[in-house]
Amino acid sequence: MKNILITGGAGFIGSHVVRLFVKKYPQYRIVNLDLLTYAGNLDNLADVESAPNYHFERCDVCDYERVCELMRRYSIDGIIHLAAESHVDRSIRDPFIFACTNVMGTLSLLQAACQYWNGDWSEKIFYHISTDEVYGALELDKPEGAAPYGSRFFSESNKYEPHSPYSASKAGADHFVRAYHDTYGLPTIITNCSNNYGPYQFPEKLIPLLINNIRNGRPLPVYGRGENVRDWLYVEDHARAIDTVFHRGRVGESYNIGGFNEWKNIDVVKLVIKTTDRLLGNLPGSGEKLIEYVADRAGHDLRYAIDSTKLKTELGWEPSLQFEEGVEKTVRWYLENDVWLNRVTGGEYREYYAKMYGRG
Ligand code: NAD
Ligand code: DAU
Questions:
Q1: Residue whose CA is closest, atom 26 of ligand 2?
Q2: 3-state secondary structure at position 299
Q3: In angstroms, rounded to a whole number, what is the distance separating the alpha carbons of residues 59 and 8?
Q4: Is the whole model's pTM more than 0.90, yes or no?
Q5: 93 alpha carbon to ligand 2 midpoint, in Å?
Q6: Structural domain contains residue 29
Q7: Closest ligand 1 atom, residue 201 Cα
Q8: Mean pLDDT over all residues of the chain?
Q9: What is the pLDDT of residues 65-81, one digit of tens each?
Q10: Does the active-site annotation cover 133?
Q11: 41 close to 13: Cβ distance less than 8 angstroms
Q12: How far is residue 235's CA from residue 221's CA, in Å, rounded to a whole number?
C-alpha cells in the first residue's frame, strides 16, 4: 500500500500521470491535489474519477497548513509534484504568479513533507517534475539538413541558465528541492523534461493551438521566423518515464527526459497542418495559407535538445512513438473530442467546477 500525493493532477501531464497510476496500481491510494486554475480541468480525469483508489482535493500548494493537514489525513508517503504555472508567454506578462506558485508552492510542499515525515525517510520519496528550460538555450550550429541542429545537448551536469520568468521560477524550485535533500536529507528526485504534446493539453500551447485554429480557419501564429528548435515527447511516454523514475530512480539524482526528437517550429507547424487537413478532408495545402509570421517571443530560447542517455542506461526508459505517429494520434484525439475542446475554449469547465468546488 502506498499513499501518493500527485499535485497538478488536473492539468495536462498531471492527468496522464494520475490516470496511469490509478489504473496500473489499484493497491495505491492516489490523492490529486490541484487548485483548478485555468489550466486545471477535471474533465481530463472523467474516466477515473469514480475509481475507489482516486481522491481529489482542491487546494493551493502554497497553502502550507492545508497541505500538512492533507498529508496527515491521507498518510502520504510519496509525492509527485507537477502543479505549476507552465506557459512561458503568460510568465512574460505576469511573472509574479510564477514565482508564487512555482517557487513558494514547491517550498511549501517540501516543508510539509519534512514536517510530516519528520526524519523518517524510509520508503518516502519527494519527486519534483521540472523542465529542460532551466538549462537555458543551445546554439543552432547546424542550421541546414536534418536534426540534430547542433552539436551540444543538455545533460544533467549542465549549469542552470534560465532566461524566461517561467524557467527562472522552475530553476528556483529545483534549487530548493536540491537544498532540502542536501540540508535536511529529504529523499528527493528531479526530472527535467522536454516539450510534451498529446491529448488534454491546453490550447494555448503550440500544437493544440494549431489544431484548434486550423479547425476554425483562424490564423496560425509563428513566432519570429519559425527557426526555433524544440525536442518533442508524447505525453504518455513522459508519464511512463515518471512511473519508472518514481519506482526505480536513485534518491538525490536528477534525470533528463527527452524524445531525441528535434524539430524546427515551422516544420512542426507544417506537419500539424498536413495531418489536420488530411483528417478533416480539406484540400491539401489549404492550412498553409493560415500561417502568419508574428513578432517573436521576448527572450525566445533558440534550441532545446535533451540527452536522456542516463535514464535509458540506468532505468531502461525510451520513448515509444515516432513524432509523425504521435502527431497523428494527437490531431485525431482533438478532432474526435470537440466537446472537450469547446468546453475549454468557451471556459465552461471553469464555471462547472467552480460551482462544485468554489472559486480558487
Ligand atoms: P498545466 O499548466 O497543464 O497544469 C498545471 C496544473 O497545476 C493545473 O492543473 C493547475 O490547476 C495546477 N496548479 C496551478 N497552480 C496551482 C497551485 N497554486 N496549487 C495547486 N495546483 C495548481 O501544466 P503541464 O504542462 O501539465 O505541466 C506540468 C508540470 O510539468 C509543470 O511543473 C511543468 O513545469 C512541467 N513540465 C511541463 C512540460 C510541458 O511540455 N508541458 C515539459 C516539462 C516539464
Ligand atoms: O521545454 C519544456 C517546456 O515546453 C515546458 O517546460 C513548458 O511548460 C511548455 O509550455 C513548453 O514550453 P515552450 O515555450 O517551448 O512551448 P510552447 O508550446 O509555448 O511553444 C513551443 C514553440 O513554439 C516555442 O518556440 C514558441 C513557439 N510558438 C508558440 C506559440 C504558442 C509559436 O511560434 N507560436 C505560438 O502561437
A1: 223
A2: coil
A3: 10
A4: yes
A5: 15
A6: yes
A7: 3
A8: 97
A9: 999 999 999 999 999 99
A10: yes
A11: no
A12: 23
pLDDT at residue 118 tops 80: yes
Mutate to test the pocket of ligand 1, among 86, 131, 195 (most ligand atoms within 8 A of CB): 86
- Ligand 1 binding pocket, CB closer than 6 Å: 7-8, 10-14, 34-37, 39-40, 60-62, 82-86, 101, 105, 129, 131, 170, 193, 195-196, 202
Task: Give the domain CATH number at 39.
Answer: 3.40.50.720
| 14 lies in some domain | yes
Q: Using pLDDT thresholds of 50, 70 and 90, give the confidence band for residue 360.
A: low
Per DSSP, the residues of 109-143 read: HHHHHHHHHTT--TT-EEEEEEEGGGG--B-----
Give the number of domains in the chain.
1
Q: Which of 142, 92, 94 is nearest to 295 (CA)?
A: 92
Query: Residue 131 is part of which domain span?
Result: 3-195+235-260+298-321
Report if residue 223 sits inside a domain.
Answer: no
Residues 212-225 have pLDDT tens digits of 999 999 999 999 99
Ligand 1 centroid distance, CA of 109 (Å): 15
Q: Which pLDDT tens digit goes with each residue over 279-336? A: 999 998 899 999 999 999 999 999 999 999 999 999 999 999 999 999 999 999 999 9
In Å, how far are 38, 63, 209, 259, 273 from 94, measured between CA atoms? 14, 21, 21, 30, 31
